[in-house]
Give the backbone structure.
Amino acid sequence: MTSYVVMGVSGCGKSSIGAGVAAALGARFVDGDDLHPPANIAKMARAEPLTDDDRAPWLALVGQALAQGNTVVACSALKRKYRDQIRAQADTDTVFLFLRGQKETLLARMAARPGHFMPPSLLESQLAILQPPTADEAHLVQDIEQTPAQIIAGFLAGLR
């Protein structure tokens, strides 16, 4: 069974696209933000970037959610080593659905999310560590300049 991670930096639409992909596939959707420990949420809310050590327990929970099968998780999965950790923990075939976007679009979307714990000031730190998936990783890419329906349809077409 295959599971899916909708990945990308903050503001790219992981949650909405992930929910749409899950609905279309008849899969369970898990928002990775809900798996963060409270300390991570508090740190990000203070505009402090997470470290690899901060992310490790969270990534384990993402992998555990995927291990249940027929699941789509929204998770930034910014670095290759994070995706490797997720894959190892998930112990299922995992396809990464990468949402690629321009900094200006991402900032505008983040600014339009009042009350979200992730401030726009942290986008730069995420972009700095982002390692897009490579040819040896099972993945598909969609540009966020499209409508959500177009993005979801593009991912679904690529999965067929």
Q: What stands out?
A: The two ends are 14 Å apart (CA to CA).
